[in-house]
Amino acid sequence: MGSLSEKTVDALIVGAGFGGIYATYRLVKVGFNVQCIDLAEDVGGTWWSNRYPGAMSDTETYLYRYSWDKEDLQTYPWSTHYVYQPEILKYLEHIVQKYELRQYMQFQTEMVGAVWDDDACLWRIQTNRGYLTARHLVNSLGILSTPNYPNMPGFEDFQGKIVHTAAWDLGSADLRGKRVGVIGNGSTGVQVITAIAPIVGQLLSFQRNPQYSVPSGQGPIADGYRSHINKNYKQIWQDVFNSAVGFNVPEVSRKCFDYSPEERRQIFQECWDKGNGFRFMFSAFGDVTTSQAANDEAASFIKSKIDEIVKDPLKAEKLKPREIYARRPLCDSGYYQTFNKSNVDIVDVYSNPISRVTADGLQTADRHTYPLDVIILATGFDALEGSYLRLNIVGRNGETIKDHWRDSTKAYGGIACAGFPNMWLVSGPQGPFANFPPVIESEIDMIVACIEHSEASTGVQHGVESNSPLIMEVSKEAEQAWSDKCEQLVENSLFKKTSGWIFGANVKRRQSTRFFFAGLKAYRDWCKEVIEGSFKDFNR
Ligand code: NA7
């Protein structure tokens, strides 16, 4: 692995996942001298590290890819409604190979810190493999890339194996016949529990807050499905980019209580049968995430399904959520059915929390110890800003990103911070809450537009080692205005009332609005306005 010592580039891209790959592709096309680095051994980002059994995107396959390679969209093979981690990784490797992007990438290389040099107008970046300087720093660190480890004593005492799903290093042979405890039942927990139940000896889900999940509709695609998608791809992407959540599900405005109880149930049933969490939340009624009464209806429907599916009434009761239905919507391939297996059970750690890890397993507050061979931590991530806070990023006047976000996490358009010139964020805080591949493309297109604007206005030559005063820096007022807008958008949203990672509650960070909830279309309209307005929020 090479050293980066004293390398000077136009842009350093940090991260080689969905975002970093596309940013590399775009900036190479602009004519930039580009370096992309990633801590992992190869491309993939989230999909490099999340290798746990059952890891799957819950966006339908045909949308979990880049929209811009029209030929590839027609020909790249896939055969199921959703893609599992190994196939996603293969797809990303394929794109990197097809566009010969590997030559710009260096792996096992971690950005430790980055300091803005105001005299030279560039970033001085420290990595574990040496220093480099870059006029633009493009952080594509991943929305969910810093694992969240639960704070409980005794991890070092455990005689078995402990593994976080985002740092998975077990083979399925390591689980066969074993007594396995899974802490966490979010998207990841639901997937891993469903996938390993058939092979483990005993499976205990240490569950704090039960969650709502609906069927995904996973399975092989029917004859003719692919050709139908291929024929309509152009329109499909147009619809996606003109929608709020970008999942190509109908986003209806009809109100729940304009329908009779029978009609309501039938509508929920249709969404349930078709599958997909975003469809269930956004295609049944338009007020499920804003009206408490409509939300209660959706929640009751899912609870009734739990009663129908789970044979043991005690298990069914434990699986029924207490919260409203307003976390990121989940879907599954038979999660509730899994609890009908005699080797699968739930330990309620809400009323009786885990107190410590012992040599043999997990102990709860009532001093009962559950003996285990393997503990799986499906405990999620320090999402969004978590990936930044562990780095020493220092902007103008010595202000660190930590200082900048001390009172609230904010980023203009989710892509830029005041006081951090020429620093760009991909899937950072306050970007759109929607299907991530189109979000990432939209943000990177906007970043590239900003960079091209600044290059055009001063006529700098790419590839030339530069001490040019070329900068793009968003104003404090514009950054604050965006952040205020993000806050206003969630005023009436039920999302704010639950305790997941979307508002930072899982890591006990001050609750601030970490997404732009007006949707993908509104975000892209805003980008257009900024471009047409000649980027007036910058360099004021
Ligand atoms: P999530 O959705 O943050 O879920 C984490 C889970 O871990 C959740 O069930 C938590 O319970 C649980 N948790 C965390 N700490 C503890 C402790 N100390 N004790 C018991 N349970 C704990 O992460 P995921 O990886 O599942 O999904 C993240 C995103 O990835 C997902 O939304 C998709 O976008 C893809 P809690 O609910 O806080 O009570």
What does this structure look like?
- By secondary structure, the protein is α/β, with parallel strands linked by helices.
- It is 32% helix and 16% strand.
- Strands 1, 2, 3, 4, 5, 6, 17 and 18 form an 8-stranded mixed sheet that branches.
- Helix 5 links the parallel strand 8 and strand 9 (202-207).
- Helix 1 packs parallel to helix 14.
- The longest helix is centred in the C-terminal third of the chain and has 23 residues, at 436-458.
- The radius of gyration is 24 Å and the shape is globular.
- The two termini are 42 Å apart.
- 47% of the residues are buried.
- Residues 461-468 have low confidence and may be disordered.
- Ligand NA7 binds next to helix 5.
How many individual β-strands?
A: 20
Shape: globular
Gap from first CA to last CA: 42 Å
What would the average pLDDT be, to the nearest integer? Answer: 94
- What is the radius of gyration computed over CA atoms, rounded to a whole number of angstroms? 24 Å
Assembly context of the chains:
single chain
Strand content: 15-25%
Q: Give the low-pLDDT segments.
A: 461-468
Major sheet size, sense and barrel closure: 8 strands, mixed
What compounds sit in this structure? Answer: ligand NA7
- Helical segment count: 16
Please bin the fraction of helical residues: 25-40%
Structural class: alpha/beta
